[in-house]
Amino acid sequence: MNPVAERPTGGAVNDVVIPKAIELAWGIGEAGTRGPKRGMSLDQVIDAAIEVADAEGLAGLSMSRLAKQLGFTTMSLYRYVDSKDMLVLLLSDRVIGPPPPLDPALQWRDALDAWAFAEFEAIFKHPWWLDIPLAAPPAGPNNMAWLEAGLSAMGQTALPEQAKFQLVMNVSLYVMSRARLVREMMSETPEDDANYPSVLAKVLDPEKFPALTKALAAQVFDLDETDWDVADFRFGLDRLLDGFERYVESYEP
Amino acid sequence: MNPVAERPTGGAVNDVVIPKAIELAWGIGEAGTRGPKRGMSLDQVIDAAIEVADAEGLAGLSMSRLAKQLGFTTMSLYRYVDSKDMLVLLLSDRVIGPPPPLDPALQWRDALDAWAFAEFEAIFKHPWWLDIPLAAPPAGPNNMAWLEAGLSAMGQTALPEQAKFQLVMNVSLYVMSRARLVREMMSETPEDDANYPSVLAKVLDPEKFPALTKALAAQVFDLDETDWDVADFRFGLDRLLDGFERYVESYEP
DNA sequence: ATAATCAGTATATAACGTACACAGTTTTAG
DNA sequence: CTAAAACTGTGTACGTTATATACTGATTAT
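Above: the input entities. Below: the structure tokens describing the complete assembly.
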């Protein structure tokens, strides 16, 4: 009845049970010395998974496909990871990578702005990242580093911690939402693109949808311009940060 | 070589091919008169799918599970729908329902605010809606009605249509992101909830994550308060609309 | 030396979406 | 009025998926 041996999963420090996935993400796995040497490392598995997803999307990433990539059998992967969900959780932190260093001389608004653009770009290095269903609040080292960078951008302000956190989070949510939109646009065939406004025009009754019809007539849904996406990302981010600015000013009279 | 008969899928009006899914969403399916009467209707299928998803989540909605609900065989469903993806697409419009009527006397900010809260509440009537992967830009009647309502809320302003659309869209994206967050919080066991901050505390090196450590010490991640979610939703929305206000004012000197 | 622990493999299972062929029903064309 | 065409729901079958389980063999601690 050893209470330590009794613990079902994960390691524990000072009565706090750390989920196994988080342990693995931070590399706090106690080695385990007996038995044969491993044929690969968890890092290799994760990196190979990223290769597969880069090539064939998240939907194309199956355990068997990944095993083939590594030259092992499907089931061998389960010696490194408890489940596919856990693998994806590790992926989601690894693939986003660390944030770029932020110039500490920047004012909070410029810093947050740069941070947002950096996240936007980081996402589009592996767009399938957006397909990962977020199950638990992120706790991997890269995710935490991004959060750290965002929070430190707000460090100059006199805001309470709660507010800093909320603002940073909201910027991140904005970036992810926008990235999703852009990805959606990209994934369409040019034919569909051209069709969308005309389909709407056919389907919408101008009497029931006057505002929409007006927007449609103003070619709101036509996205011929080359960098529709970045311009709109810029626009929305500026509005968002305008709102933040007003709030920050209310703390610096 | 009849060019009409040659068309592979969907109906067409004036050279614009309407995708079949959109036809079905708007109920523009030409009946098809020959053959036996149908045992059910597409609406019944969709409603049953909503029942299943309400009971067992989107992951629990399989074609066979849905068929059982309806008392038919799995394959019978494919007489109503080309694929599960198409069913889900129809679901995504049906389940969000129509927007509530907006008081036209409201100022744009109050109207948008009410609109955002209404969407927030609508989502939480069927939280699994958030799990639906958005494949194509939404074009169903309910989605369009929500968009119409949002745009008409901005109708009083002097903004160009593009800007109106962007602002409305950004509010909607904010609502969805926040809803995702709240859902994530809800889905956790109270035990995990309590653990998250302490796990972070164990894992984070205060030297490498000073800002995060400070936030952690300020109990930013402790969510004991009863309505944590609504308060933060309110907060972020206010900041967002503050930003909009500044922009709108720049058009009304 | 022997027992415990680990690695990778092989096999098997349940669930999934859906292609396909079929039998029965209703409407339309000749 | 008959026959063809179009449509319904069903049964069967296939390929994929994640993963449980039992195994063989390697390595190390006792």
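Note for the figure: Residues 32-39, 72-76, 79 of chain A lie near DNA strand C (CB under 10 Å from a C1').
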